[in-house]
Design a protein that fits this description.
By secondary structure, the protein is of the alpha+beta class. Helix content is 23%, strand content 38%. It has a single domain, classed as Domain of unknown function DUF4822 (Lipocalin, Beta Barrel), CATH 2.40.128.540.
């Protein structure tokens, strides 16, 4: 009897341990990006070239509620859209703010968005089911590094 308990106890312990382990999310970054039907920009930062630290420009660039609730979507067919949220800056504004195409690199570390024949590429810093952080260098602003957080 003792022998069977000594054999049974470790097996049960191992099975309980395996059952309690959290399974890793096997979704790719591309799938996670497409799954969220509405990404809202929640934070915009720019790297200070003198200090190397990011400074928050969210209130300056997204100060009005009409910008904060705009919806960014990345469709399965490679179409990127920015649409107005519930709050519009002008009630007569079109629902569709911008559209273009998007793609993600093979190693899923970079995203490219093409809008009006201009392609911008950024590094994906974070991408989970509820948070998307991208950094890119904006040449129109003198090569300043910009970090945008979407939720």
């Amino acid at each position: 009897m003792k022998k069977s308990i000594l054999i049974f106890l470790p097996v049960v312990t191992i099975l309980l341990f395996l059952a309690s382990c959290k399974k890793e999310d096997s979704k790719t970054r591309k799938e996670l990006l497409q799954e969220n039907t509405c990404w809202n920009a929640s934070k915009i930062e720019a790297k200070n070239p003198e200090t190397g630290l990011y400074e928050d420009y969210t209130d300056l660039l997204l100060g009005d509620a009409c910008y904060r609730d705009n919806c960014y979507t990345f469709n399965v067919d490679g179409v990127y859209k920015e649409t107005e949220g519930v709050t519009k800056c002008d009630p007569t504004d079109e629902e569709l703010v911008a559209t273009g195409t998007w793609s993600i690199s093979a190693d899923e570390s970079n995203i490219s968005i093409t809008e009006d024949s201009v392609t911008r590429t950024g590094k994906i810093e974070t991408l989970t089911a509820d948070k998307f952080v991208i950094t890119s260098t904006d040449q129109s602003l003198g090569g300043i590094e910009i970090r945008v957080t979407y939720e």
